[in-house]
Amino acid sequence: MNNSEKKRMNGEAEEENEEDVEDEGRDAWERTYTDERSWEALEEDESGLLQPIDNKAIYHSQYRRRLQSLSATSAASRIQKGLIRFLCVVVDLSKAAGEMDFKPSRMAVIAKHVEAFIREFFDQNPLSQIGLVIIKDGVAQSLTELGGSPEAHIKALMVKLGCAGDSSLQNALELVHDTLHKIPSYGHREVLILYSALSTCDPGDIMETIQKCKKAKLRCSVIGLSAEMFVCKHLCQETGGSYMVALDEGHFKELLLEHAPPPPALAEFAIANLIKMGFPQRAAEGSIAICSCHREAKVGEGYICPRCKARVCELPTECRFCGLTLVSSPHLARSYHHLFPIEPFTEISARQFELSRVASKTCFSCRESLLTPGTNKAGPCAACTKCKQYFCLDCDIYIHESLHNCPGCESRRITPAAASATKS
Amino acid sequence: MLKEGAIESRLVAGPLVVTTWPRSFLLPPHSRGKLLRDFNQSTVVVGHGYASFQANRRSLISFSDDVSLLVVLIDTNPFFWSTSSSSLNFHQFVSHVLVFLDLIVRLSQLNQIVVIATGHNTCDYIYDSSLDTDQVTGEGELPALYSFVLQRLEEFVDKDEKLGAKQEGLSEKRASSLLSGSLSMALCYIQRVFRSGPLHPQPRILCLQGSPDGSEQYVSIMNAIFSAQRSMVPIDCCYVGSHNSAFLQQASYITGGVYVKPQHLEGLYQYLATVFAVDLHSRSFLQLPRPAGVDFRASCFCHKTTIDMGYVCSVCLSIFCKHHDKCSTCGLVFGKVQSDAASDRKRKVPES
C-alpha cells in the first residue's frame, strides 16, 4: 500500500510539472485555480479598499434559470400541485456522516440545514406534516411521528446527533413505507433522504423494496453528500423523485430548500377528496380551561374545537379527542399563491429599454432608478406582460419569490368589460 | 346619486387655498411631551437650504435603534369619501394626516416618510422624504411639506378620476380601493431600503383606510401580509370607515402591528400621535391598543357565510359548507382518480 501511495504522489508531482503543457490531466478543482482565477475579479476603489463583487447579475441569471425550469415543467401538462403533503425526512447518521469534508462535520451541517428546512416547509405548506427517521448502526428508527409542529421535530433532532455504524437504505425505505402507508388518500406521500454513505447494508433485495414503494406511490428524493450512487439514482427514477449531489454547504442548502415548495403532482398520484376541517374561534379572554396538548390549565389563550369543544393551544393541529383537523383561514391562504401563480416577467435588455421611450426611468414598485449608476444608460430590467410596467431586477426576484403579487397588475382596476376584451 | 368619480370637497381650487385650512381641532404637537425628543422646528419649516443641511447632518449622526421609516398608505377612494356619513370629510382627514407626518419628521432627524395614495383605479407614490427632488421651499403660510403633499395629492386624485372616466357601470355601493396595489408597492420599497446597506431605519407600514374590503383582493392582500411577516415589517391600521375591516385586522394580527378604529374621528390626530407615532423599539415599553378578538373563521365559497366547520377540497383548497360531489372551483370529482385529457399516457384505474 505504501509503495502505491508513493507512486501516486510522484505521479501527481509529474502532472503538476506538465500542467502548462496539457489540460486534460487536471482535476476540476485544479481548473478553478488555473482557468477561472477568481482573485482577478476583485477590484479596488480610489482609496485602496476592496470593493464587493457585484453579484447582482449572477443572482438574477440563476433566478431566471430556476424560473424557466419551473415554468417548463408546469406548462407541460395540466399539473396540480400537491398541497397536502406528508413528508418523511430520512437522515443518514452512519459513520460516513462524521466525515469532516463539510465543516465542522457532515452531521452538524445536516442538522443545521434540516432545521431551517423544517421551518421553511411549514411556512410554505401549513397543512402538511413531517416525520423524522434516522439510520444508525444499520437500523432505521423513527425519531418523530408525522406531525405538524416544527418545534417538536427540531428538538428531537438536536438531541439525537451521534453517528455510528453502517447505513441501510432498505431498512429506511421499509420503515417509511409502513409509516406512510396509513395516511389518507388525498395526501401526497414524499420521502427525502439525506445520504452521506457510499454503500448500503441491506437484509434483503432492495429492488423489491423499491418496487413496493413505487406501488405505494411514494415519491422518493435523495440528496447525496458524498458521490452519486446507482441505487439512489434508480430509486429516484422509479418513484419520480429527484436525485442531486451536493458540492458544498451552500449548494446543499439550496438543494434542500428546493424541496420546500410543493412539487408538481401528477393527477394520478393523489385523489381529490373533501376533507372535513374545523375553523376554531379564539377562546374568550380570561377563560380558564385545560388544554388537550399539554394537559395544563391555561388562561385565555388557545382555540376551541367546534365539534367537541376541547381547548387546543396552537393551529394547525388535529383535535386529540375527535380527530378533526383544525386550521385557520390564513393557513389555507398561505398556499393560494401556489394555485394562482404570477407569470414570469420578460427580461428587457438595455437597448430595448431605451427604444421603448417610457416617461420615467424608475422601477414602478420601488422607484429606484433603472439607469446604471454613474452613467446615463439604462441597465437591464424586467417588464410584466400584462400591465407593461417596468421593474428593476431586485424587485423582479422579490416579487416572484416572496410577494407573489405584481404591483403593476394590482394597481390597475380591470372592469369585467375590459377583462373580456383582453381575453378575446 | 353620486357623480362618477367625483369627490365633494376638493383639496385646493386654483392657487393654494390657505384661509380655509381648519386648524381649530388640531392639537399642537408640543403637548405630546412623552413622544417628542429633539424638536428641530427650524430645520423643517425653513425650506431654504434644507436639502444640503439635512445631508450634512445625516453623515455625522449614526443610526440609533429608534429611527423609523414610515410608509403611509392614504385612502383617496372618492366613492368612500363622498358617501361617508361620519364627521370627518376628506379635507379634514388630510389635514390631520399632514400634521402627523410633520410630527414624525420632527421626532428624529433620521426618520423617513414615504406616502403612497390608494385610489379607486390606481395607486401612486406621493412623497418620499429621502428624495432630493421632494425637498421644496415653502411658499405662503403653509410649511413646505404640507403644500407639496397637497399638490401631489391633487394631481393624483385628478389622475384617478381620469382613469375612472373611461369605465362604465360604476354604480357600486361598496366600492373598494386598490389596497393590495399600494401594499405591494410599499413592500417593494421597503425591500429596497433593506438592500441599501447594514444601516437603515426600521420600516413599518401605516394604513389609513376607510373603504370597505374588496373580496376580489383577498388572495393578493394575504400574499402581501405573509411577505410582510417574513420580512418582519408590521402593518398598522387606523380604520376610519364604518364597519371593521377583516382584512386589515388579520394583517395587523399576523404581522404584529396595531389596529385601531377610532371612535371619535374629530380627534383623529390624537389617535395617530399617541398610537402610531411610536417607533418599533419603544413599542415594547408601551401598552398599545390590542384587538379584542380577530375572527379567523373562513367563509364558504357557495354562500359566503362564515362557518366554523366545513369541507375543504384537497386540490384547490376551496371551502364548502356541505358535502358536494364535484368541486366548483377546480371541477374535479371527489373520490375518484381524475382522467387527464391533456396527458398522452394511458392510465390504469387503480382498485379503490
TrEMBL record, chain A:
Residues 1-11, 26-37 have a biased composition (Basic and acidic residues). Residues 12-25 have a biased composition (Acidic residues). Keywords: DNA damage, DNA repair, Metal-binding, Nucleus, Transcription, Transcription regulation, Zinc, Zinc-finger. GO terms for biological process: DNA-templated transcription; nucleotide-excision repair; regulation of transcription by RNA polymerase II. Pfam families: C1_4 (PF07975), Ssl1 (PF04056). CDD domains: vWA_transcription_factor_IIH_type (cd01453). GO terms for molecular function: zinc ion binding. SMART domains: C1_4, VWA. It comes from the Eukaryota. InterPro entries: C1-like_sf (IPR046349), Ssl1-like (IPR007198), TFIIH_C1-like_dom (IPR004595), TFIIH_SSL1/p44 (IPR012170), VWF_A (IPR002035), vWFA_dom_sf (IPR036465), Znf_C2H2_type (IPR013087), Znf_RING/FYVE/PHD (IPR013083). Coiled coil: none annotated. Its main location: nucleus. Residues 1-37 are annotated as: Disordered. A zinc finger (C4-type) spans 305-322. It is found in: Nucleus. Residues 384-404 form the C2H2-type domain. GO terms for cellular component: transcription factor TFIIH core complex; transcription factor TFIIH holo complex. PANTHER family: GENERAL TRANSCRIPTION FACTOR IIH SUBUNIT 2 (PTHR12695), GENERAL TRANSCRIPTION FACTOR IIH SUBUNIT 2-RELATED (PTHR12695:SF2). Belongs to the GTF2H2 family. This is General transcription factor IIH subunit. The lineage of its organism: Eukaryota, Viridiplantae, Streptophyta, Embryophyta, Tracheophyta.
UniProtKB/TrEMBL annotation, chain B:
It is found in: Nucleus. GO terms for cellular component: transcription factor TFIIH core complex; transcription factor TFIIH holo complex. InterPro entries: TFIIH_Tfb4/GTF2H3, vWFA_dom_sf. Pfam families: Tfb4. Keywords: DNA damage, DNA repair, Metal-binding, Nucleus, Transcription, Transcription regulation, Zinc, Zinc-finger. GO terms for molecular function: zinc ion binding. One of its GO terms (biological process) is regulation of DNA-templated transcription. Component of the 7-subunit TFIIH core complex composed of XPB, XPD, TFB1/GTF2H1, GTF2H2/P44, TFB4/GTF2H3, TFB2/GTF2H4 and TFB5/GTF2H5, which is active in NER. The core complex associates with the 3-subunit CDK-activating kinase (CAK) module composed of CYCH1/cyclin H1, CDKD and MAT1/At4g30820 to form the 10-subunit holoenzyme (holo-TFIIH) active in transcription. Belongs to the TFB4 family. Component of the general transcription and DNA repair factor IIH (TFIIH) core complex, which is involved in general and transcription-coupled nucleotide excision repair (NER) of damaged DNA and, when complexed to CAK, in RNA transcription by RNA polymerase II. In NER, TFIIH acts by opening DNA around the lesion to allow the excision of the damaged oligonucleotide and its replacement by a new DNA fragment. In transcription, TFIIH has an essential role in transcription initiation. This is General transcription and DNA repair factor IIH subunit TFB4. It comes from Linum tenue.
